[in-house]
Design brief:
The chain has about 270 residues and is α/β, with parallel strands linked by helices. About 35% of the residues lie in helices and about 20% in strands. The structure holds fe (ii) ion (FE2).
């Protein structure tokens, strides 16, 4: 079975910047690559309704399952100022392919599981900044936008702990299967921005957590998929292949071709 993985489509932002239909190109690629299923690692758009519509369109037009996890952008409340983050999270969770609902059996002992995950500041430079400073989400005139557009009602560490507890239980339960773990946030330190860096010494704090890498390795996960940071990179570590496969913003692309970028960002796993 061929499973495709891509994250950070940012359909709304990219359409404005590039006037191109990313979804159309992705649909063509799923066909060309003869994918049996697709997994999207979050940040489809800044509006959960748009995100759900995109998932529906892929499933409808290609007739394949389109699994996904939420990204922080999908949870933003710009279009829904009266909703808190849990309400938006639950709106997305109503879709049966959202991995927040539980693991998915892909056949041949392969299991796909995960959720957005969150950040606990452990990737930030602790020698330069204190917990209180990271908790501010503001530095040198820049604000990490989750501060403005998300409200979990508890602090970031507690959100992270919640997802960690869930991941621990799920991975333990599926220990004897071949597991593909998908988070939106970064699950390996090598996917953070190299430091020392003028601003990323600080902003790496919001990319993910060191806890995920440890857990994934200890549970001998086969593939750990993520997005969030707009890099495309693979890291082999212990028995796990960590894959960060973001399409990212069009102004960050290396080529002017949407097709080339989607093709490059789309990872295809051959599961046997
Ligand atoms: Fe993100």
């Amino acid at each position: 079975m061929k499973l495709g993985f891509i994250a950070d489509l940012h359909l709304d932002i990219n359409e404005k910047r590039r006037r191109t239909d990313i979804l159309e190109v992705l649909l063509e690629q799923t066909k060309e690559q003869k994918l049996d299923a697709l997994c999207i690692g979050g940040d489809v758009s800044n509006d959960y309704r748009r995100t759900l519509a995109a998932v529906e369109q892929i499933e409808h037009e290609r007739n394949i399952p389109c699994y996904f996890v939420a990204g922080n952008h999908d949870l933003w409340n710009i279009q829904h100022p009266n909703k808190n983050t849990w309400e938006i999270y639950n709106e997305l969770k109503r879709h049966p392919r959202n991995l927040a609902n539980g693991s998915q059996d892909l056949g041949n002992n392969w299991t796909l599981l995960g959720d957005i995950g969150w950040y606990d500041f452990s990737f930030g430079s602790k020698s330069k900044y204190t917990f209180a400073e990271f908790n501010q989400m503001k530095m040198k005139g820049s604000t990490w936008q989750d501060k403005e557009y998300t409200d979990w009602a508890v602090n970031s560490l507690e959100v992270h702990e919640l997802f960690m507890k869930k991941f621990k239980e799920q991975l333990r339960e599926h220990r004897h299967e071949k597991v593909i773990f998908c988070s939106h946030v970064v699950s390996h330190e090598k996917f953070t921005v190299p430091t020392p860096h003028r601003i990323w010494d600080y902003f790496n704090a919001y990319l993910g957590s060191k806890d995920y890498e440890q857990l994934i390795k200890s549970e001998k996960v086969q593939y750990a998929l993520c997005g969030h940071v707009h890099f495309r990179k693979t890291v082999h570590s212990s028995e796990t292949e960590f894959i960060c496969s973001s399409l990212g913003y069009a102004n960050q692309w290396r080529t002017p071709s949407t097709k080339d970028e989607v093709q490059h960002a789309l990872t295809v796993l051959h599961l046997e």
